[in-house]
Batch of 4 targets.
Target 1
Amino acid sequence: MVMTTSNHRPFTYPDGRIDIPSKSGRNGGVKYADYAIGRFIAEASREPWFNDTIFVFVADHCAGSAGKTDIPVKKYEIPLLVYAPHHVKPGRMDRLMSQIDVAPTVLGMMNMSYDTDFLGRDALKDSGNAPRAFISTYQKLGYLTNDQLLVLGPRKYAAQYRVDRASGETRPLPLDDRLLDDMLAYYQGGDYLYQHKLNRIR
């Protein structure tokens, strides 16, 4: 796993790689990240393990993830790129998912059989459950299901919104106890598994 940081202030990267000087701003950080990923794939393609490797590229949030609402949903619509030209056919999938779904989805693409305590789902298989995503800021936790967003924060803060997924506009709604129970089950259940070292994959 490699985490890149060139897309964060002060947007520094090696000179001479792209035509935008280092420390010039986000456009340079984005262009350098594009260059770096391209160079990484080009160099990897010369290795004997390349044909049997699945490369996964995913972001954490879009530029400027802060906003005027509790959690600005549009700023958490991120790309996920799965690249394995000898095993994965080109395609596009726009189903609602989040980062906890990446590992189950990739393992599903590999047709792997395994036992796990993953809270995520294989986004390419229909589980029969409603799609959902988990998003958060440094203080607030979000639970997004179709057009409903539930937000929890410090001091027992809870709020619910209807979200226009196309525009990102939100409208306050009364709190739905059923949705709140679902969200708490995920977050508290995940915390319990972690705190008691019960997470496993076989």
Note: The first helix runs from residue 26 to 44.
Target 2
Amino acid sequence: MDRFEAGERVRGYESLDEYRRVRCVYLDDLMRSIEEEGYRPNAETSHEPAAAVNGFEMAYVHRLEPVVAIGRGGEIQLCEGFHRAAIASVLELERIPVNVLCRHEEWQRVRDRIVVDPSMVQNYGPAIDPRVHPDLQRFSPDEPR
């Protein structure tokens, strides 16, 4: 509200009323759809933006899955797709697809070592269990939980 009152556009919308009328209705519909039909990856469906006349809503990021960066210790940081991730959390979905934007170079080194020798997953301590870490599961010799 403060940004609108300061004369700013928010996500391409000119007013709080327009945002509520278009964007919030779209998000409500998205939540209902995910709840009733499950999470459908954007690659498997056509994306219908909240407003066809809004350039922000037509941006390429809205054709991707939520975007994450992976930190030095393997922590996953959400960069884009906050609404889909929040809806998935509220609906208690165990997993959703994401696009990895980047990985910290230290994490990439760990990942590269594990790709070369999958038995190395056991060498990385309890802070992040590589057998269940989403960025490492496919390389783990053990079954993920």
Note: Strands lie at 67-70, 76-80, 99-103.
Target 3
Amino acid sequence: MTAALDLMWDEGYSAVTIDEICDRADVKKGSFYYFFKSKAELAIAALEKLWIDDWKPRLDREFSPSVEPLNRLTNYLDALYTRQAEHFKKYGKVLGCPIGSVGSEVSTQEHDVNAKVREIGTRKQRYFESAIRDAIAEGAIEPGDARQKAQTLLFLIQGALSEARIMNNAELLRNLPATALQMLRAKPAPAATAAR
């Protein structure tokens, strides 16, 4: 699953063959078909593994209720830039979002894979929605529909990641936290009261 995800993220879902996946994973093709009926079935399992092993634990930490709501969002976006810059240093290219990359490629072809991509996107959006709802409740973001704001934020992130991948420039993500706060109409933090 790791080999499949790495290859699909790097080369694209359509470009990757089962033979390449087996070579990368150092398994026989017969073993592949013992566990999976198709590349699509493997992709679904690999995306779910990514969610369980990596994304959910990281999002649980970054979006902990013990963290201030706006900090949950900005810390996530700062870390997103850092990860993409590290990928660029390691691979010589910006890889963008594995879910977004696979999802945009298979949206009209592999309906089961696309359904898994949408499901994971919805799970991720709930973290944004919770932070936004908490920020609205404490007056840090102007009132509004938290779900709609979270969806718009997800669109902004996916668009920025896609553009960074197209331009092969992680620096395009550096100002994402400030852009997101501006889009959400976050209120500036109150100035510290001067000591008397």
Note: The domain at 51-183 is CATH 1.10.357.10 (Tetracycline Repressor; domain 2).
Target 4
Amino acid sequence: MRLILIEDHHRLAEMIRLSLEADGFVVDRFAALSDARRALAGVTYDLILLDLGMPDGDGVELIATLRRNKVMTPVLIITARDGIGDRVRGLDSGADDYLVKPFATAELAARCRALLRRPGGTLGTVLEAGNVALDTTRREVRVAGKPISMPPREVALLEQLMRQCGRVVTKEAVDAGLYALHAEVTPNAIDTALSRLRRRLTAADADVSIHTAHGIGYMLRAPDTSTASRG
């Protein structure tokens, strides 16, 4: 799950980023609307976290522009503006939720998950492939009904592969789903994560397998090469 955080207060932004990354999100952070617009034009995000009082403009204007251009990515406003008029203006511009500073990072993460559980969102399903099940909301993995411990990055990688079970997921798509834009990633980071995920699934007697399409990407295979989901 990839989020864009548009917040100019560095200390707060870093606190939010670290907290959400610990919850398994990939976070790209920008301190100006101009930089955020460029990122939004080239990257597909699952959720937008937006401060209204930015140094180069009002966040409400960005929301209105996105909605006029039919970009329906959920927007969660995070702001110090606590007046009823501010809330109404923000929500009427097209935002999906409004959170007033200061707030607990646990509440922010819960609101993110709630937005992503809405119809058409990223969360809210249990993905299944063979005897492997992944609760996309709780970020829990089970093999044959038994929970297995898995770090957030491997859970994110497994989710990507399960959502495309039986189809190749390109290296570029895997990279975009696992790492923020400015993250320092070693050349073999993805292969290392895949190797660890393979070993973990094998040790748990999973009946799925991960195959490498050399130079292209990776594919998860289940006994019936399909993935089902339930709400």
Note: The first helix runs from residue 10 to 22.
